[in-house]
Amino acid sequence: CCTFTVLVQLPNLSIATSLLVVFLFYDIFMVFLSPFIFHSSVMLDVATAGGSDSQSTVQGSNVCHKSYGENMPMLFLVPRDDWRGGYTMLGLGDVIFPALLTTLMLRVDYMITRGCCQMTSQEKVSIFRKIGYFPILLLGYCIGLIFAFLANTYEFTINGVKGQPALLYLVPCTLGPAVFLAWYRGELQLL
């Protein structure tokens, strides 16, 4: 995740917004709406190596075994702290896509503090001027993650799917503050 966010840098806020919104709808479709078409949640089946018995694939002399319930390497398992125990799943996309926006805003903060660019002609004196974009987006990500975990704990569900599309909570909690703060500071067009 860290290497990906270092190597892939978004050039502006409009591309970041487009990317996050597209993957938000993709995540919602694959978790909540895919059971209407495929009779099970595609995202949950992929994350949990869904419902098939042991399968093996032969490639040359190497044999790769996949067994039922095997965890994929594109998944973080976060231990639950409620009475039921178990784990909450968090996909790499739930980390990477909001991180791309967050690193963009970190670069913007760096350019502003280094004086590399004059972002706005008017200087508004407020708490929002003193705090950069990055800490606010980091706080927004934490709040969105808490919402996603709470929705999973209390089994907020659509179509009987037990999982949650974490981007449903992470995108509004990161993109919303970024766009609002840029608008409030008069930097929306420049970003």
Structure description:
This protein has seven helices and four strands. Helix 2 (13-38) runs antiparallel to helix 7 and helix 4 (92-114) runs antiparallel to helix 6 (133-153). The longest helix is centred in the N-terminal third of the chain and has 26 residues, at 13-38. Helices cover 55% and strands 10% of the residues. It has 191 residues and is mostly helical. Strand 1 (55-59) and strand 2 (62-66) form a beta hairpin. The strands form two sheets. Strands 1-2 form a two-stranded antiparallel ribbon. The model is unreliable at 51-66 (pLDDT under 50).
What percentage of amino acids are in beta strands?
5-15%
Please identify the structural class as seen in this structure: mainly alpha
The number of E-state strands comes to: 4
**What is the N-to-C succession of helices and strands?**
HHHEEEEHHHH
What is the first-to-last residue Cα distance? 24 Å
Uncertain runs are 51-66
Number of helices: 7
How are the strands of the largest sheet arranged?
1-2
Average pLDDT number: 78
Largest sheet data: 2 strands, antiparallel
**Helix residue percentage:** 40-55%
Q: Report the C-alpha radius of gyration, rounded.
A: 20 Å
Q: So what's the overall shape?
A: elongated
